[in-house]
Amino acid sequence: MHFDAHTALVVVDMQNDFADPKGSLYVRGGDSVVDVVNEHIEAAHQGEATVVYTQDWHPPSTPHFAKDGGTWPVHCVAGTWGAELHPRLFVDGERIRKGSAGEDGYSGFTMSDPETGATSSTGLDGLLHQHGVDKLVVLGLATDYCVKATALDGVHLGYATTVVREGVRPVELEPGDGEHALREMSEAGVSLA
Ligand code: VGL
Ligand code: ZN
To answer: Ligand 1 test: best mutation among 14, 18, 104, 107, most atoms within 8 Å of CB?
Structure first.
């Protein structure tokens, strides 16, 4: 993987609820990608790339959660253990928190209001522009939700976007969702490394 000053490593949702086996929405193998992610963080810093960390950051009640009419068990509630970045992750860079006002959506770039559907920016695109970034390397959790949405938005926003296969794992509500997500990304112009 080549990193330079015009590249950003986007570390997606490496939080306890996804990456720790005790997490409420544990992604199988999530803990095993921490080392791979850390190697990429080191390489990115060496190459003077920008490193950013996204965090799923939900209020205690949101239409995202099954108990409120959505899909998911309660996870990544702002300020809780589950929302913290994994303790073994090398954290050195800005954090982008998404969903704090109850917005829905999986992408690190955009959020949508669950009632009105209006989309708003997380600030990630602006931050990357400020740093002169035109290439993204994306890894983290989960392949079939937040990694996919972030990588697809990356391509649509004009970034040359690569997803690191060994640095991602899928939730797989349905078997095969992970591979399907990789294919969808590839067809949309995401490079798979
Ligand atoms: C995610 C499901 C629900 C993710 C977030 O980070 O991929 N998945 N919320
Ligand atoms: Zn979530």
So the answer is: 18
